[in-house]
């Protein structure tokens, strides 16, 4: 069952159910010029996570999640930080299904986040 779920996820046949809707993130207006690249990098991270999961590179998943956890918090992306923390824990446990679920949630969050500059 686990392999089927992961394979379906990697093919894009799985999406997280985000019943909470879109997320609003308040970011300091002084960071406005940095956010587009930050978001682009997080988008690339999704592809990297999927490739790492496909290849059972749990240590690399854990390392990338740890980096995202730090940078997300620095910019005020609390949910992103929370998801990265959970991905990191799941990678430590080698829990493929949970990692796939969390990557899908991360991707959905990234696609729905609304950034408000204050």
From TrEMBL:
Q: Which InterPro entries match?
A: HPT_dom_sf, Sig_transdc_His_kin_Hpt_dom
Q: From what superkingdom does this record's organism come? A: Bacteria
Which part of the chain is the HPt domain?
27-118
Q: What is one Gene Ontology biological process annotated in the Swiss-Prot or TrEMBL record?
A: phosphorelay signal transduction system
Instruction: Give the sites modified to Phosphohistidine.
Output: 66
Q: Which UniProt keywords apply?
A: Phosphoprotein
**Name of the protein described by the UniProt record:** HPt (Histidine-containing phosphotransfer) domain-containing protein
The root-end lineage is: Bacteria, Bacillati, Bacillota, Clostridia, Halanaerobiales
């Amino acid at each position: 069952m686990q392999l089927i779920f992961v394979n379906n996820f990697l093919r894009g046949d799985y999406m997280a159910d985000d019943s909470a809707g879109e997320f609003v993130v308040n970011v300091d207006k002084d960071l406005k010029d940095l956010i587009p690249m930050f978001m682009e990098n997080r988008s690339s991270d999704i592809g990297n996570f999927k490739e790492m999961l496909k290849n059972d590179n749990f240590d690399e998943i854990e390392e990338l999640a740890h980096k995202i956890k730090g940078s997300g918090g620095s910019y005020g992306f609390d949910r992103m930080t929370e998801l990265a923390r959970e991905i990191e824990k799941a990678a430590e446990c080698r829990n493929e299904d949970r990692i796939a679920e969390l990557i899908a949630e991360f991707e959905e969050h990234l696609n729905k986040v609304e950034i408000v500059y204050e």
